[in-house]
Write a structure and sequence with these properties.
This protein is mainly beta. The chain has three helices and 28 strands. The strands form seven sheets. A four-stranded antiparallel beta sheet has the order 3-2-1-28. The protein has a four-stranded antiparallel beta sheet with strand order 4-5-6-7, with no helix packed on it. It has a four-stranded antiparallel beta sheet with strand order 8-9-10-11, with helices on one face.
């Protein structure tokens, strides 16, 4: 891993965005030594930062100041602000070229990258939106709010699907990596649902309140909260795989890097960011601590920005243009329609060629989503600096 290729970005109660570069050095014994070094500090928000999201070359952060700020990680400049919602920005997530934001005012805004217009405003939960998760296909979304409701959204048509009434206010919601499951946490209880049947297939009882859930694989979920440990469960087998002590008292947020099998955890009690490495693909053994850093702040949220993904996307776009020009030179030949998968991380030319046609459906879905959202969009004020 090249130095500076990955950056860990955290939001804090102290209004700061803090960046830490993950670097790797080879030791004489052949083992890799990782370290986290401070890379930047940003203090643009006027209130505590509640959520952040990484997509493409941007880091988006939401705060109690009711503003979403965009930071360009390539040029290291502030790209502008998004101001549409009248309440604390409680959650941020992204899919392809869209950014989704939930707020205390009960709305979910869907922003289009580049133009940064609010393509659609969903009136979701009257008492405030608490969580949001997008299906890997980009066609569905789940949201939770203070109205004790779990709502399903049709993103192709840009409207509400159906509502599931919960017994209490949910704290977190998350789709699995392939979208076959989704999990909803209420206090210290986590229910995992099958998407095909919408029924609970597995229930996890946590010792204390659950603060964050993340799927390591489609059927393997990690749970963290107000206790010092992280529990990993296998949904298919219906059992706990492993549990280990991650922080002194609380795990506030987590992110997973599949390529290295690294699980990142952050705590707002001890202020540490820690990176854990799982030794096996089934996550049945306790991970080892790779590296850690003391932020000296109370961490509220965590995101990972990968520079190599941005560079790969730029290279793939250039290759796409070259292929289109080559096809235009000979109209008599039978040519295939080519689409570039913007999520592909391989930089080798052979791998790119094999994957050009594999993203056709995904691109078609994205185009359809954009058309439908524009048809339902009403003029909204925006403020971008």
């Amino acid at each position: 891993m090249a130095e500076g290729g990955l950056e860990i970005v955290v939001g804090t109660y102290e209004n700061f965005l803090l960046g830490f570069s993950l670097s790797c050095q080879e030791e004489s014994n052949g083992q890799s030594k990782y370290s986290l070094k401070p890379s930047f500090t940003n203090n643009s928000h006027c209130g505590s930062i509640r959520c952040i999201s990484s997509f493409h070359k941007f880091i988006a952060s939401g705060s109690t100041d009711e503003v979403i700020r965009l930071l360009n990680m390539v040029s290291r400049t502030e790209h502008g602000i998004l101001q549409q919602q009248n309440g604390t920005i409680t959650c941020l997530t992204s899919h392809q070229s869209y950014l989704f934001s939930g707020s205390d005012d009960g709305t979910i805004c869907i922003w289009k990258q580049r133009s940064w217009e609010c393509e659609k405003t969903l009136h979701a939960h009257p008492e405030g939106v608490l969580g949001l998760s997008i299906h890997p296909s980009g066609k569905l979304a789940l949201s939770i709010g203070r109205d004790k409701a779990l709502k399903t959204w049709n993103l192709v048509k840009g409207r509400h699907g159906y509502t599931t009434n919960l017994k209490a206010i949910a704290d977190a919601v998350q789709f699995s990596t392939l979208g076959n499951y989704y999990a909803v946490s209420v206090s210290n209880r986590l229910d995992v649902y099958s998407l095909s049947t919408a029924r609970v297939i597995y229930t996890i009882s946590f010792t204390k309140k659950i603060l964050h859930i993340i799927f390591l694989k489609d059927d393997i979920v990690a749970v963290g909260g107000d206790q010092d440990s992280v529990d990993v469960h296998n949904v298919s087998l219906g059992e706990k795989s492993v549990s280990y002590r991650a922080h002194k008292s609380r795990v506030k947020d987590m992110k997973f890097l599949p390529s290295q099998k690294f699980l990142l955890t952050a705590s707002n009690c001890d202020g540490h960011i820690r990176i854990w490495n799982f030794p096996d693909d089934n996550f049945t053994q306790a991970p080892t601590l790779v590296t850690e850093v003391d932020t000296t702040c109370r961490v509220t949220c965590l995101a990972v920005w990968d520079k190599s993904v941005v560079l790969t996307k730029k290279t793939l776009t250039e290759d796409h243009q070259i292929l289109q020009e080559a096809e235009g030179e000979d109209d008599d030949e039978n040519t295939e329609e080519v689409e570039i998968d913007m999520e592909q991380k391989s930089t080798s030319s052979n791998s790119r060629s094999r994957n050009l046609s594999s993203a056709q459906e995904e691109r078609d879905s994205s185009d359809k989503l954009q058309i439908e959202l524009r048809e339902h969009r009403k003029p909204k004020r925006r403020k971008i600096k």
